[in-house]
Design a protein that fits this description.
It comes from Gordonia amarae NBRC 15530. This is VWFA domain-containing protein. The protein is α/β, with parallel strands linked by helices and 1133 residues long. Helix content is 55%, strand content 9%. The protein folds into six domains: 248 residues, no CATH class; 85 residues; 195 residues, no CATH class; 108 residues, no CATH class; 43 residues, no CATH class; 163 residues, von Willebrand factor, type A domain (Rossmann fold, 3-Layer(aba) Sandwich).
C-alpha cells in the first residue's frame, strides 16, 4: 500500500459501505445503537430478501422469532442429543438480528439464515501454526480511542458516538469497526470463520438482486461483490464446504431468556454487559438529551441501592456522580454519557476508588440496576414438545419453584419430599437442566438424612427439555431411555452397569432396575472388579434398608427378593477378588479394602469368616506394606482389637535403609487411608507411635523424620490438630502462638540456645527435640522450637508443602519462613541435615510428584538405581524440554545399565542351558574342561606326591553357539497406568532374553492400541523411552496382535504381563487364549513381574484365563527366565 494510509483506509471503508448488492449492514450481536437505526436502514433499502447471520436450522423458527406476540429476550437454542451439548443464540430487543427479523415479518420480506448449520462439525484444524500476537490496525485503533479491548473499541466508535446520529453514519461506523478488526485477520489461523464465510458467500450467490445482509461487521469484508463474483473464490468455497458435511442432528427450539442470563457475567454465551442499560440506550438513543436523563436515572437508582445496603450515599454523592459522568462525556467529545462513563463515575464517587470492600457493594448495586430482571415470553402457538408439558405439570404438582431456590428436602420423613427427590433424580438422568444436588454430609463425613438442591427454571431447562424429547414424552420415560442409551454408548461395562443401576434405583425406575439386576447377576460374578462388586453390594444394602427416596417406591420395594439374591451371589466373588489387592500400592486400593470390609463384615453365611481370614493374612505380611497397614488398622478397630505396637516399633526402629523406609511409609499410609481417624480415636495406637517416636535418640529421629513426614502426609488438617492437642496434653508443649511479649520470648530462646551449646560441649545434648516438637515436625506443624527443628521442618515443607489451608489459617498456625530459592540449596540442606542416603530418597520422592528440577539434582555417580526411581525418571521425560532432557539421560542410562547388569547376573543360572556352546574337536582356544576330563578318564595316574593327574591326549573344545533361533518368545505387556514397575522389569528381562542364541523375541506394548517395539528389544533404554504408560486396557487387542505373529505354534512361547483389568467384555480375550492354547502355543500370564511376588490384579479374569489355558501368577524375572528355560529344554532334575 502506497500513499497516505489514512486515505487508503477511508477508501476501503467507503467501498464497503457503497456496495449495494448485497447491501451490507455490519452489526455486533447486541448493539442498541444499530438496533435503533436498523428499521430506517431497511426501509430505505427496501430489500426483496433479508439475509441474516443465523444458523441454517433457524429457518423454520424465524416466523416465531419475529411474531408480534414474542416478547424478547428469547433465545434460539440448539441441543445435540448425542453429547448433551447446548448452544444459545440470545435475541434481545437491542439485538440487530432480532430487529431485522421482526421488521421482515411485519413487511412480508422473506428471511434467509446464511450462517453455517450447527449440524456441521466445528472441529476445524487451522492449516498452519498460528504466529505470535502482533500489533495491528485493531490495536492502533484501540490505542487511539483509549480502549482496553476490541469490545471497548466498538462501544467507543459505534455505541457512545451513535446517540442522535444519522442511520447511515452509524452503518458506516460499524463497517469501519469491522474492517479494522478484519485488517489483521489471517485466514490460515481462523479456519472456522473461513468455513462460515464460505457458507455465507454460497448462500448470497444463490439469491436474486435486492438482498440486504445483516451480518457480523467482522465478516462484512469477506462478502464483497468482487469475492462473490470471483470464480476462484467460488470453487474454493465449494471444496471447503464439501470437506465438512453435516454429521450431527441437533434439536432446535425457541426458549424464553432473561436479563440475568443475557448479562456476560452469567456465564451464558453470546451475552452483553448490563442489559438494562443497553435497553435504555435503545429507547433513548435518538435524543442525546433523553440519553443523558437515562444516565442520571441509572446513577440515581444505583445510589439508592447502595444506601439500601447500609452504606452512605445521599443526594450530594448522586449529584457528584452525575456531574463526573457528564464531564467525562464532554471531555471525550461524546453527545451523552455511555456505559464507560457510568462505571468510572460509580468507581470514583460511590466506591471512592475502593475496588474491594465498598467497591463490591457498589458493584452489587450496579448489577441490580444495570442488569435488570426482565424475562421474555414466547408467542402463543410456538412449537413445544409433549415432554415440556409433562415437565410443567410435574413441577406444578410437586410445588417446585421456577425461580432460583435452595431446597432442603427430607425424603425419608415425608411423601412430598420423597416424590420431589425422585423427580429431581429423574431430571438429572434425563439430562434436563433444572436441579443440582449440593453437598449433604454431616460431621465426620457421615451421611445426612436430608438432601440439598439448587433449582431454577432457566433457558437451559427449556432447551435441554426439547433435546430430551427425542427419548420420550414423560420425564420417567426419558430418564429410563437416557440411562439405556448410556449403557449402549459406554459398551455395557461393569462400572457402567453399576452406575446405571444406582441411578435407576434412585430414580425409582423399577422396570429398568429389574433388567439391570438380571444382567448384573449374570455377568458380575465373573467380570466385575472389586470396586464394582463392593459398590453393588452396598447399593443393595442401601435399597433393602430404605436409605434413599427411590427405595421407598412401591415398584422398587417389589424388587427386594431379587436384590437379596443378588447380594448373596456377589459375596463370594468379592472374597475372591480381595486376593487381587495383595500387591496394591495405590492408596485408593487401601480405601477400597476398607470399604469392602465395612460392607461385608455383617454379612450372613461364611462371608465374614473368609473375609476375616483374608484380612488377617494381609495384616500378617502376605501383602504390600500399604495393604498390610490397611488390614492391620481394620483389625485394630474391629472386634479383634489387634495390638499394633510390636509392628509399629519394628517398622520405625528398622527404617534404616531405602527399602525399610518405603515399607514404613506404605504401612502408615495404608493405616490412615483405611481408618483416617485411627490415631485420634484409638489411644492405644497413637500411644504406640508416640512412645516409639519420643523414645528415639535425636540422631535416630532426624534420620527417620522424612519417612515419618511422608507417612503422615495424607492426614487431614483437622486430624493433625487433634493429634497435636493430645500431644500437648501429654508433653505440655504447645504449637500455637502465645500472647507473650516477642522480645521476652526471644530472650528465652537465646538462653535456651546457650544452655544447649553448653550441654553439647559436655556431650549431654541429646535432648534437643522434645516429644511435642517431634510431633510438630512429623505432622508438618513446626511453629518454633530449636533452630535445628525449624531447619528440618523447612526442608521437608519444600516437598510436602507448608500448612496453608483455610482451617490452618483460622487456627493461626501459618508459617513465615522464606521458601528455598533453588533446588540446589535445598539438596545441600537435605544432605547436611539428613545425610546423602536420605537426601536421595527425598529428591526421588519430589521427582515422583512431578518436580523435574529435583530429578535433575540427583547425581548419576552417587544415586542408587532402583525400579521406582527409573519409573519416575521415565514419567518425567515425556514433559521435559530437550535442554532438561539432556541432563536426565545420564541418570536414566545409569539406572538402566545397573539394573540390567544386576538382573542378568541373577538370571544367568536359569539361562545356562540355553546358552550352552557346542563341543568340537577343532581348536577354538576355548577348552571344554568337563568334556575333556570325561574323555581322558582312562589316562588318569598318580604323581610322586600322590595327586591324581590326567593326560589330555583327547581334547574337546567349545564352539560359540551361533544365533539360530529355534524358539519364538512373544512378550505382550500391558502399559496401562497401574503396570509401571512390571513394564520396567519386562523391558529389562526382554533385553536379557534377546541375548539367548536360541530365542527370537517380539515385544508388544498395549493399552487400547498395540505397538510393536521389537526393534528396540536389545536396548532396554530405547525400549523404555518408546513406551508411554497410561490409558485403558484391551488385552484382546494385544493377544490378537500376538496371534498374527505366531509362525510355529509348538515352538512359540507367549508371556502376557497384565493386571487383567480388561476394559471391555472378557469374552473375546478368553476366546483368543483358548485359540492360542489349542494351537499349541505355550503361555504364561504374569499378574505382576517384579521382585515382590504379590500383585494387584483382577482375580476373576485371571482365573478365567487360567481355565482357558494360560496359567496366571505373580512372578519374578528369575521365575520367568526359569519358565522359558524349562519350556524349551524340559524341567530340570
Amino acid at each position: 500500500m502506497t500513499g497516505d494510509p489514512g486515505v487508503a483506509v477511508t477508501a476501503a471503508v467507503a467501498a464497503l459501505a457503497g456496495q449495494r448488492d448485497p447491501l451490507l449492514i455490519g452489526v455486533r450481536h447486541h448493539s442498541p445503537t444499530l438496533a435503533r437505526v436498523l428499521p430506517r436502514l431497511l426501509e430505505a433499502a427496501a430489500p426483496r430478501v433479508l439475509a441474516v447471520e443465523l444458523p441454517a436450522e433457524a429457518a423454520g423458527w424465524v416466523r416465531w422469532i419475529g411474531h408480534p406476540d414474542t416478547v424478547p429476550p428469547v433465545a434460539f437454542a440448539l441441543a445435540d442429543p448425542g453429547t448433551d451439548a447446548l448452544s444459545f443464540y440470545p435475541l434481545a430487543a437491542f439485538s440487530p438480528e432480532y430487529v431485522a427479523v421482526r421488521w421482515a415479518h411485519e413487511h412480508g420480506v422473506p428471511v434467509e439464515c446464511i450462517d453455517l448449520p450447527a449440524a456441521v462439525s466445528r472441529d476445524v484444524t487451522p492449516s498452519s501454526v498460528a504466529s505470535a500476537p502482533r500489533p495491528g490496525v485493531a490495536d492502533a485503533l484501540a490505542d487511539l480511542l483509549g480502549a482496553q479491548a476490541s469490545v471497548d473499541s466498538w462501544d467507543l466508535l459505534v455505541e457512545s458516538r451513535g446517540a442522535g446520529a444519522d442511520p447511515e453514519a452509524v452503518r458506516v461506523a460499524a463497517l469501519a469497526a469491522g474492517w479494522a478488526l478484519r485488517a489483521d485477520h489471517r485466514p490460515d489461523e481462523d479456519a472456522e470463520n473461513e468455513l462460515r464465510e464460505a457458507r455465507m458467500r454460497t448462500c448470497l450467490r444463490a439469491f436474486d438482486p435486492g438482498v440486504v445482509a445483516v451480518v457480523g461487521a467482522f465478516h462484512a469484508p469477506a462478502l464483497t461483490t468482487g469475492m462473490l463474483a470471483d470464480p476462484a473464490v467460488e470453487a474454493a468455497d465449494e471444496l471447503l464446504l464439501q470437506r465438512f458435511p453435516a454429521d450431527r442432528n441437533p434439536v432446535a427450539s425457541l426458549v424464553p431468556y432473561g436479563s440475568a442470563e443475557l448479562d456476560t457475567r452469567s456465564g451464558y454465551p453470546a451475552g452483553i454487559a448490563d442489559p438494562a442499560w443497553q435497553a435504555a440506550v435503545l429507547a433513548h438513543g435518538d435524543s442525546p438529551t433523553e440519553l443523558r436523563a437515562a444516565a442520571t436515572a441509572a446513577l440515581t437508582d444505583i445510589g439508592i441501592e447502595v444506601r439500601r445496603r447500609g452504606h452512605p450515599c445521599g443526594t450530594g454523592e448522586i449529584a457528584e456522580a452525575v456531574r463526573v459522568a457528564a464531564d467525562l462525556a464532554t471531555l471525550r467529545g461524546l453527545p451523552a454519557p455511555g456505559r464507560r462513563e457510568l462505571l468510572e463515575a460509580m468507581t470514583g464517587v460511590y466506591a471512592q476508588g475502593d475496588v474491594f470492600g465498598r467497591g463490591r457493594v457498589v458493584a452489587g448495586a450496579a448489577q441490580r440496576v444495570l442488569v435488570g430482571s426482565e424475562r421474555g415470553q414466547l408467542a402463543p402457538g410456538t412449537p413445544r414438545s409433549g415432554l415440556a408439558d409433562d415437565l410443567d405439570r410435574r413441577l406444578a404438582a410437586l410445588r417446585l419453584p421456577a425461580a432460583a431456590t435452595e431446597l432442603r428436602l427430607e425424603p425419608l420423613r415425608g411423601n412430598l419430599d420423597a416424590d420431589r427427590e425422585i423427580f429431581l433424580r429423574q431430571l438429572l438422568a434425563a439430562g434436563i437442566a433444572y436441579g443440582k444436588p449440593t453437598a449433604g454430609t454431616g460431621a465426620g463425613g457421615a451421611r445426612t438424612v436430608g438432601s440439598r438442591w439448587s433449582v431454577a427454571v432457566t433457558s437451559a431447562t427449556h432447551a435441554s427439555t426439547e433435546a430430551a424429547a427425542l427419548f420420550g414424552v414423560t420425564v420417567p420415560q426419558v430418564a429410563a431411555a437416557r440411562l439405556r442409551h448410556t449403557m449402549r454408548r459406554d459398551g455395557d461395562r461393569p462400572e457402567t452397569a453399576a452406575l446405571v443401576l444406582r441411578r435407576a434405583l434412585h430414580c425409582a425406575l423399577d422396570d429398568l432396575a429389574a433388567e439391570l439386576i438380571t444382567a448384573v447377576r449374570r455377568r458380575f460374578p465373573h467380570e466385575a472388579g472389586l470396586a464394582e462388586l463392593t459398590e453393588t453390594i452396598a447399593l443393595c444394602d442401601e435399597t433393602l434398608t430404605g436409605q434413599f427416596a427411590g427405595a421407598l417406591d412401591d415398584g422398587i420395594a417389589a424388587l427386594r427378593e431379587s436384590l437379596t439374591g443378588l447380594r448373596a451371589e456377589l459375596v463370594p466373588p468379592v472374597i475372591r477378588e480381595l486376593d487381587g489387592l495383595a500387591g496394591a500400592t495405590d492408596t485408593g486400593d487401601a480405601a477400597l479394602l476398607a470399604d469392602t470390609y465395612r460392607t461385608l463384615y455383617r454379612t450372613s453365611g461364611d462371608g465374614p469368616l473368609r473375609l476375616r481370614h483374608t484380612i488377617i493374612g494381609f495384616a500378617d505380611g502376605a501383602a504390600s506394606p500399604l495393604i498390610q497397614g490397611a488390614a492391620s488398622a481394620l483389625l485394630a478397630v474391629g472386634e479383634d482389637g489387634r495390638d499394633l505396637r510390636p509392628q509399629v516399633e519394628s517398622l520405625i526402629s528398622g527404617a534404616t535403609d531405602t527399602e525399610r523406609r518405603d515399607r514404613l511409609t506404605g504401612y502408615v499410609r495404608g493405616m490412615l487411608t483405611a481408618v483416617p481417624h485411627l490415631l485420634s480415636t484409638a489411644p492405644e495406637v497413637f500411644g504406640a507411635f508416640h512412645d516409639v517416636i519420643a523414645g528415639l535418640p535425636d540422631a535416630g529421629f532426624v534420620a527417620r523424620l522424612p519417612t515419618l513426614r511422608a507417612a503422615f502426609d495424607g492426614l487431614a488438617p483437622e486430624v493433625r490438630e487433634r493429634l497435636l492437642t493430645e500431644t500437648e496434653r501429654a508433653t505440655g508443649v504447645s504449637s500455637r502462638r502465645s500472647g507473650i511479649d516477642p522480645e521476652l520470648v526471644a530472650g528465652w530462646a537465646d538462653d535456651d540456645q546457650r544452655a544447649f551449646d553448653r550441654l553439647r560441649a559436655l556431650g549431654l545434648a541429646d535432648a534437643a527435640f522434645t516429644p511435642g516438637v517431634r510431633w510438630q515436625l512429623v505432622l508438618g506443624r513446626r511453629r518454633g522450637g530449636p533452630n535445628t527443628a525449624v531447619q528440618l521442618g523447612r526442608s521437608l515443607d519444600r516437598l510436602y508443602g507448608a500448612p496453608s489451608t483455610r482451617i490452618e489459617a483460622g487456627l493461626g498456625i501459618g508459617g513465615d519462613e522464606a521458601p528455598y530459592p533453588t533446588v540446589r540449596e535445598w539438596s545441600a540442606d537435605l544432605a547436611e541435615l539428613f545425610g546423602a542416603d536420605v537426601r536421595d530418597d527425598v529428591l526421588g520422592a519430589a521427582a515422583a510428584r512431578g518436580d523435574a528440577a529435583a530429578a535433575l539434582a540427583l547425581s548419576p555417580g552417587t544415586v542408587r538405581p532402583s525400579v521406582e526411581l527409573l519409573t519416575t525418571m521415565l514419567s518425567l521425560s515425556g514433559g521435559l524440554p530437550e535442554s532438561a532432557l539432556a541432563g536426565l539421560r545420564p541418570l536414566v542410562r545409569r539406572c538402566v545399565d545397573d539394573l540390567t547388569k544386576a538382573l542378568a547376573t541373577r538370571l544367568q543360572p536359569a539361562l545356562r542351558g540355553l546358552r550352552t556352546a557346542r563341543p568340537t574337536r577343532r581348536n577354538t582356544r576355548i577348552l571344554d574342561a568337563r568334556r575333556t576330563i570325561a574323555a581322558n578318564l582312562s589316562r588318569v595316574y598318580r604323581d610322586a606326591e600322590g595327586r591324581n593327574r590326567v593326560i589330555a591326549a583327547d581334547t574337546v573344545f567349545s564352539e560359540r553357539a551361533l544365533r539360530q533361533p529355534d524358539w519364538h518368545l512373544i512378550i505382550v505387556v500391558d502399559v496401562s497406568g497401574s503396570m509401571e514397575p512390571s513394564t520396567v522389569f519386562a523391558a529389562l528381562t526382554a533385553a536379557i532374553l534377546a541375548g539367548v542364541p536360541s530365542l527370537s523375541v517380539t515385544f508388544l506394548a498395549f493399552s487400547t492400541e498395540v505397538v510393536d517395539l521389537s526393534e528396540h528389544v536389545d536396548d532396554p533404554l530405547a525400549l523404555l523411552m518408546e513406551i508411554r504408560v497410561g490409558g485403558g486396557t484391551s488385552i484382546q487387542a494385544g493377544l490378537a496382535a500376538a496371534t498374527d505373529r505366531v509362525r510355529v505354534p509348538k515352538r512359540t512361547l507367549l508371556v502376557l504381563i497384565s493386571d487383567f483389568e480388561e476394559g471391555g467384555s472378557t469374552a473375546p480375550m478368553i476366546a483368543a487364549i483358548t485359540h492360542l492354547a489349542g494351537s499349541g502355543v505355550s503361555m504364561l500370564g504374569c499378574a505382576a513381574l517384579d521382585d515382590t511376588g504379590v500383585a494387584r490384579y483382577h482375580v476373576g479374569t485371571a482365573t478365567a484365563a487360567a481355565a482357558a489355558g494360560m496359567p496366571v501368577s505373580a512372578v519374578s524375572p528369575l521365575r520367568l527366565a526359569e519358565w522359558v528355560a524349562e519350556t524349551i529344554t524340559g524341567p530340570r532334575s
